[in-house]
TrEMBL record:
Domain of life assignment: Eukaryota
Domain D-isomer specific 2-hydroxyacid dehydrogenase NAD-binding: 66-169
UniProt organism field: Brassica napus
Signal sequence bounds: none
SUPFAM superfamilies per UniProt: NAD(P)-binding Rossmann-fold domains
Name listed for the protein in its UniProt record: D-isomer specific 2-hydroxyacid dehydrogenase NAD-binding domain-containing protein
Keyword terms: Oxidoreductase
Amino acid sequence: MKSIGSLIAKRLEPFGCIISYNSTSKKQRIPYRYYLLVDEVKYKQNVPKTEYSISMRLSSYILLYYPDLLSLAANNDVIVLSCALNDQTHHIVNREVMEALGKKGIIINVGRGGLIDEMEMVKCLVDGVIGGAGLDVFEIEPGVPEELFGLDKFFFFGLDNVVLSPHAAMVTQGSLDNIAQLALANLTAFFSDQPLISPVRLD
């Protein structure tokens, strides 16, 4: 979990979500005020909340960490993807992960389209292997290959368990203002011989 993932989790916290994450390493400190202790076995079995224990404790850093995406999917209801696309994360969400997420599971992808095996996702959505998906990105942009959806290139629009947006999740006034401020801060630092706020790595 890096900057984007942390900001997503911060926005989910007021809704009382049980926040779990997978990352390249376990984070020692993440700024959250509360964490929940839940009898996860009963939770996943849909036992009414009154019949299992939930306790809330004051904290500034505790989240539920899972060392791999498969275990994360098996123990959560929603997966939000916001990581970078590289050789290690290409198709990180495959059919096995979707099956672990389950029939009520939701996948939200605001990262890169290649993080999900789209062909398998379509099958899982149609067959009810997963409950639904919210997609802001696709493997091939801006076009969606016709072979992905069969004869109907707008196949997704026929599914009532899918929400699509045209790779525009970050296009808000606040986000654009932040980008402009960051660019100005980098220029100011550069011309003042100071370290850049967000240097670009060329390796």
